[in-house]
Amino acid sequence: MIEHQFRAWLAGSVWPRARAEGVSRATFERALGDVALEWDLPELVPPGSADRVPQKQLQAEFRSPARYFAHRKLEDAALHGRRLARVHAGALAAAEAATGVPARIVLAI
Predict the structure, then answer these.
(1) Is the alpha carbon torsion for 10, 13, 16, 18 positive or negative?
(2) 56 is a domain residue
(3) How many helices (H) and strands (E) does the chain have?
(4) 2-14: b or e for each residue (b if 16 or more CB lie within 10 Å)?
(5) Is residue 29 situated within a structural domain?
(6) CB of 67 within 8 A of CB of 32?
(7) Are both 6 and 39 inside the same structural domain?
(8) Which residues contact 84 (CB under 8 A, 6 or more apart)?
(9) What is the pLDDT of residue 14?
């Protein structure tokens, strides 16, 4: 049933958007015709599935972001960023001049 829903989503949502962007049906079929849901992905719980119970998510991105924003970690990151800005000041200025992207943004990336 889920595979049928996936195919319906491709046909009803993805294909119309691709067609509107100028993608031919042949190209669409070559790119996505054989695409299928990967049921063996860890912790995948298909909608409506009662036989598979999700395990507790331990990946930090799925919990409170406070660990990423701890005061000490932010201070350390800022210190490191300032150090890199000094070391690479010439390259950052050149990148800013060439792209128009402020040096601080290039450094952050």
Answers:
(1) negative
(2) no
(3) 6, 0
(4) eeeeeeeeeeeee
(5) yes
(6) no
(7) yes
(8) 107
(9) 93
Question: Is the per-residue pLDDT at 66 higher than 80?
Answer: no
Residue 36 domain-assigned (yes or no): yes
Indicate yes or no: pTM above 0.70: no
User: What pLDDT score was predicted for residue 87?
Assistant: 95
What CA–CA distance (Å, rounded) separates 57 from 41? 14
Task: Tell me which residue range forms the domain holding 82.
Answer: 65-108
Residues 69, 104: one domain? yes
Side-chain-side CA neighbours of 93 within 13 Å: the count stands at: 5
Rg (CA), the chain: 23
One domain for residues 36 and 69: no
Share of the chain above pLDDT 90, in %: 44
Structure token digits, residue 7:
């195919």
Instruction: Kindly state whether residue 39 falls inside one of the protein's structural domains.
Output: yes
Number of domains the chain contains: 2
pLDDT at 70: 77
